[in-house]
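Wait, can you check?
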Amino acid sequence: AAYLVVDGNADVVIEGPDGAKLTVAQISRNAFVGEIAILCDVPRTATITATTKLDTLRISKDLFFRLVNEFPTMAVEIMRELARRQEQSNLQLTEANRRLRELENAGA
C-alpha cells in the first residue's frame, strides 16, 4: 500500500550500513509515500516515523493502479515527484562526496 498524509508531520528514516538510523527528509500534509514499493515490487526503502499526530489515507496497490489508469495526470504528478526526489538525492550525494574529498585532502 501507499499512504497519503492527510494531516501531521513525520520523518523519513533509513538505516545506514552500521545500523544507525538517519533522517533523510521530513514530510507533512499531502505527502505521498510508499509508491516505490508498489511500482517496483521491492521492500520499503525507508521508514516513516510520526513526529506529530499523523492522519493518513491508505491506498492499496490495486486502487493505486486503478487511479493511475483512470487519472493519467496523477501518473504524471507521481513521476514529477519521483524525479524531484531523485534530484534531491543527487544533490545530497554530490555534497557528501565533495565534503569527503575535502576531508581526504586535508588529511593528506
Notes: The first strand starts at residue 2 and ends at 7. The chain has a mean pLDDT of 91. The two ends are 49 Å apart (CA to CA). Residues 10 and 31 are 10 Å apart (CA to CA).
